[in-house]
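Thread: quick sanity check before group meeting

JM: Hey all, I'm pulling together slides for Thursday and realized we never actually wrote out the predicted structure for the chain we discussed last week. Dropping the sequence here so it's in one place. If anyone has concerns about the input, flag it before I start.
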Amino acid sequence: TALGIISIVMFLGITYLAYDFGIVPGGDETVVSKIARRVWGDGVPYYLVQAATLLILVLAANTSYADFPRLSSILARDRFVPRQFANQGDRLVFSNGILILSGFAILLIVVFQGDTHALLPLYAIGVFISFTLSQGGMVRRWLRLREKGWRWRVWINGGGALVTGVVLLTLTVTKFVEGAWIVVVVVPVLVTTFVVMHRHYDEVAHELSLEGLERPPDFQHTVLVLIGDVHRGVVRAVQYARTLAPTAVVRAVYVETDPTRTARLEEKWGKWGLSVPLVVLTSPYRSLLRPLLDYLDQIQSRGDEQMVTIVLPEFLPRHWWQHALHNQTALLVKGALLFRKNTVVADVPYLLKR
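JM (edit): ok, ran it. Output follows.
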């Protein structure tokens, strides 16, 4: 109550002084600065008023960083924005909300070239949207709960919603060309985006629900080690593949793009293959993926219980720039199998020392 009375007195006082001194908004100086200069000149009191105004603006700007991350976390909890907004950082604050808010603040400053007068329509419309929605929300609450004194409270909040709604419409019409159109366009887009996200999360929750789930069938597990040569990294990957499941069928798969290499590879595999059978897939057009995908189709066509694990031996160079010197075949295979049903891709890295 006290803060409300102080705010009303300050507003009325500034309005009276501006009217009495004939001060109007405009130029590079604010109304408060003009009034303070007329009253105290360029002395110390003038600069105290300016410093106090600065502190108030700093506190006002801080409210966005205090409340927007918390609001976005609530929306994330209710599945209207991405769930990353509900994550707390190392300092126990909602870091993602702070970063997004900072990014949009920087974007507005750049787009409007730091002109605060150009940003005023956005601010005013945003404020009166909040006022109207909050007052309207209170009206709905009183009508729903019908607590003691709800009738006169409905009239108070309803009148407030009506007044702020009229001001909102007036600002939207009069300041539409000056930037109000941005809010008129962005708000419906945001609301639509929130609804789409909420629907997506509901659909995901429905598909992952255990309700109505029958006992799943036992998997028939096949482990395929995809090789392009025989080296230490491949031997390590074969060792890993043999530990995945005691009943799994383990095979090595080689896609033959150069027939002259196949005989040498089969000879090395007989020595270092750890008794794992080798399947050679011919590729007349030297394609790596097509013969592999056809072979997977052949295995998984036996039934929906066929689970296939692709083990990829991958050696990792010590220096980052050395990655560009290799084919990145593993990355190509992972991309092709990313959305394939009943298929798991496992990387077995072998770290090079040089």
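AS: nice. The chain has eleven helices and five strands. The domain at 220-351 is CATH 3.40.50.620 (Rossmann fold).
JM: adding both to the slides.
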